[in-house]
Amino acid sequence: RLRNSIISLKVDDDPPAQYMRAPKPQYIRSEKWLRWVESQPCVCCGKQADDPHHLINQGGGIMGSKADDMDCIP
Question: What's the whole-model pTM score?
Answer without folding.
Answer: 0.56
